[in-house]
Write a structure and sequence with these properties.
Distance between the termini: 25 Å
Radius of gyration: 20 Å
Largest sheet: 9 strands, mixed
Helix content: 25-40%
Shape: globular
Amino acid sequence: MLINKELLIRSLKKRNLGNFLFFKIKDILGKQPEPDYDFPLLINIETSSVCNLKCIHCPPQLNEFKSERRKHNFIDLSIFNKIMDEIDRHGKRSISLHKDGEPLIHPQISSILNRVKKNKDHKVYITTNGHYLTEENIKLILENRIDIINLSIGAATKEFYELVRGKRFERVISNIHNLLEAIKESEWKPRVLVQIINLKEINEIDSQIEAFKEYWQNYDVELAVWDKLNWGVFDNDSDFKFRYPCYSLWESFNINSNNNVTACCMDWKQELLFGNISEQSIEDIWKGKEIDTLRKIHIEGKEDEVQACKKCNYWFWQPRLMNYQNN
């Protein structure tokens, strides 16, 4: 049950998601070139679960996760190469180096970046907090033609940054400026996205967001302001009264640095395990019983029966069936 367009459309219509959403999804499914859903369009690979920051909005710093004791891991290079060999056999795909840690911390990041775009048709993303954007790593990113660099900054001032991230603001800003200067001199021009989290519980967040926009608008970057994720454990503060099937189950594949394959990048506790990439192939897991069962639950509107999905707010950000192959 990878995807059945008519079944999905009927399900959405039956669940009263509104004419706009219904016709929008119908239009996407009907007019775009048919993606190859027999293999994931986007593969998220966590190269490292180790992070050098202590962000107040991330699970390790939240009371709801204090009882969790996760061993920090770096993905084994042989496993990474195995993953990439399989992806390469399936043509153009999107690959994102991100999840719970800082990817550039990996001691073999040079080998990873040298390998990830061996197939030059792939679109490759990397998400970094910027602290490990050394001259060497910037050179690796540009030489290997990484397509999109997501810079998770989170603040516009030194005081606020050190409050929410717990590290030196000047260092990360200096590194980003070095990156932007290197891009000016490079033949390769990746997209650079600078992002901040809307931490609504902090009084000065509105002024921070405005200062953030004002500062970065003078540079050749794209800006993003994200609502804080609830990691599936907090009550939603959204006004949405409906849910629709989570697109991640049909489009993305999430590989953790400990080799576990989980439902999505929001499943920090790794409660929804689909398999282990050291023992199985991507294709076998993608077509397996575990993920298929969860897809059916979402199609039938029974997400609340799954603890990890019940309170998750990720699903309402972008009601999409995105063709990563054509973006």
